[in-house]
Amino acid sequence: INTVMLKSTLVRRHALSYYPSIVTAIFKVPCSALSPEVWGRVAHYLDAISLINLARVSRSFRDVALNEWRERVYEYTGRHIRDVYGFYRILGDVFGVVSGSTALAVLSAGSVQGTDWYAESDMDVYVPPEGKAGLLRYLVSVEDFVIMEVPQDVRERYWEASACIGAVIRLTRPGSDNHIDIVVALQSASTLPIVAFWSTLVMNYISS
Fold first, then answer.
1. CB count, 10 Å around CB of 150?
2. Torsions phi, psi of 44, nearest 5?
3. Which of 111, 96, 112, 120 is nearest to 52 (CA)?
4. Which one of 26, 71, 130, 167 has the minimum C-beta count within 10 Å?
5. pTM of this structure
6. What pLDDT is stored for residue 2 in this prediction?
């Protein structure tokens, strides 16, 4: 077991990404041989592609990978939201999604580029028109956010996609540098405005 764990720590992350068979070979130890906490600690240091490959090894390792994804989502969302579980429960009810740098930070975690996103101070949330009121009510009444004016340059950037966006609402907490931009889609699909920002997609691809 010690030999297997030593190999797990020595194999480089990019090697795991390009050689999924290495992942299979390393993690051929029965789950009963090591506690779930140990497997979770190993998964914490894997990048996105390695986690995907790990999930293909067995059902048990799929659970380990899914738990690690969940932890990463909660960690990065928790930089902006106090009750992350409650936030995603509401977001699911209104059919909204989180995108932008927060989503990219989740995918970049465990990679060389992962540390570049630790200082991000904004989060983009996309909702359909019918979900705006419910999400706003939750963030203001439960999370203590207040509505602030959207800067002119931000408005211009968002309104490049005026055919997809119905409104942009910026929220912040008093005394905090963090803010949340709620992008309200013009139609019922909350993901519609995301693909309209082609430059964001290109920059995210290059930077990741």
1. 16
2. -60, -25
3. 111
4. 130
5. 0.72
6. 33
Token pair in block for residue 165: 């966006």
**Cα(133)–Cα(139) distance, integer angstroms:** 10
Tokens of 170: 């910026």
Q: Which residue has the tokens 């920059």?
A: 203
DSSP state of 184: E
> How many angstroms separate the CA atoms of 120 and 22, rounded?
34
Phi and psi dihedrals of 124, rounded to 5?
-105, 125
| pLDDT number for residue 114 | 56
Q: Is 99 left (phi over 0), alpha (psi -120 to 50) or beta?
A: beta
The bridge status of strand 122-127 relative to strand 146-148 is unpaired
Cα separation, 120 vs 98, in Å, equals 14
Rg of the chain over all Cα atoms, to the nearest angstrom: 20
CA atoms 19, 21, 24, 26: torsion sign: negative
Q: Please answer whether residues 160 and 153 qualify as being in contact, where contact means their C-beta atoms are separated by less than 8 angstroms.
A: no
Mean pLDDT by 10 residues, the chain (208 residues): 34 44 50 65 84 84 89 90 94 90 81 56 88 94 90 66 78 86 87 69 53
